[in-house]
Write the structure tokens for this entry.
Amino acid sequence: MLKIAKQINEYLAYNKNIYQISPNTIKNKHAILNQFASDTKITSVEEINNHIYNIWLRAKIINLVKPVSINVYNSTIFDFIKFHQNEGVEIVFNFNLVPHYKTTVSPRKFYTNFEILQILEYADECEKLIITIMFETGMRIAEIVNLRVENFEYNKISFVGKGNKMRKVYISVKTLKKLQVYLRKYHIWNGYVWCVLDGVKTLNATPPSINTVRNRLQKVFEAAGFKGFYPHALRHSFATNLQKKGASVIEIKEMMGHSSIATTERYLHGFDNRLEGLFKKYQD
């Protein structure tokens, strides 16, 4: 087996085991990475550089590959490179030198505190806790699903987030007390927090898959009258709620664990219908 094939398999295994990405997504990532390795004739991830990548990308553009597909290729291969960089592999690659192609983007969804309270009326005890913690902390669905009792220190949650970065977030004391009631009720003293489905502990006390949690939350939101739910909308809601309460972009960036302000700005929707007031506030 070529080294690049082994490296691709290591990356896919990480996505499958840690982020519990769906089989279809794993299959698509595998196809993209295999095609890239085959087209460029690289034998190891260390051989990837901007010259090789841009020649490959230019060929895709000449063959009229759609911009949305180009961006999917970029996202998959960039994530593959970053994974191995985090593993200590030396790869000389400047991500900023690769063009990003504009596509039509659907408006991001976010929910207000009042809407979340409405939605919780349609959730069971486990779903309520998951939704509330995601709304209060901005945790991603993969991070929340893999939470363990050991990650908690009173209301502080310490965990390994995206990019293998250690993160700390905090839930409200009110939410902590509800979580403690849930843990005591099902005798969950260690291991995975979400090892109960419909009031019954799962086999070997393992958590449900990300797809299972996603589907259950989607049903809760639809029952409450909110269609088109996707889990990352709760991360947008967390950021927007902070902004509406007066947090600065830099503060929100730190609380979300982002590396750059540019990333954080994509999550903020709190200036809707407030521009006139902002102009008046800062004009003489």
Remarks:
- The mean pLDDT is 86.
